[in-house]
Please model this.
Amino acid sequence: MVEKMLRNLRWLGHDAFLLAAGGLHIYIDPFQLPDGLPKADFICITHEHYDHCSPADVEKIQQPATIIVTEAQAAAKLTGQVEILKPGESCSVAGVGIEAVPSYNINKKFHPQANRWLGFVITVAGVRLYHAGDTDLIPEMREIRADIALLPVSGTYVMTAEEAVQAALLIQPQVAIPMHFAAIVGTENDAERFAAGLSGRIRVEILASRK
Model:
């Protein structure tokens, strides 16, 4: 089932992903989306920054039945069926489990822990996909259980590639996927350093952006 989820996981650049699973379309942090994408059943938004919570991009994929799961500051920018979660809370709809987990900086000011912004663990057919959001290497990662981990690697606003290696080693997913590079900040070199750091320990897939 992990391989099936990987086949149905599409990186849309930066921290944006589309997961097609069980007849559903689940988006995470949609940003700078191309036209023609399928309408969303769920949209998970980690926090209110413009490159994660983009009302214009949400509008492209939103339909009346779309459920948006996010935190309070992002929710204030959005309309429709919006469910607010805090770290440690969860919801389940149509067989999809969505757990909100902490996501914050510890040595920079961009994503304060006090804001209670989010990462997500999304469970479909028993497979757990972790999207870390904009975060540093934080102690709570020791508690994350995931089959696939999407981890930021660019540094500046989030973990460096080397810190993301340590995060993956804490989480021990079957597959780790770098994100948060080759857009606003970071380069392909960050993703390659991440992969090299986990070589022989955890499988890494560097996805090509498919817009």
User: Anything to note?
Assistant: Residues 2-204 form a domain with the Metallo-beta-lactamase; Chain A fold (CATH 3.60.15.10). The mean pLDDT is 96. Helices lie at 2-7, 55-61, 72-75, 161-171, 188-197.
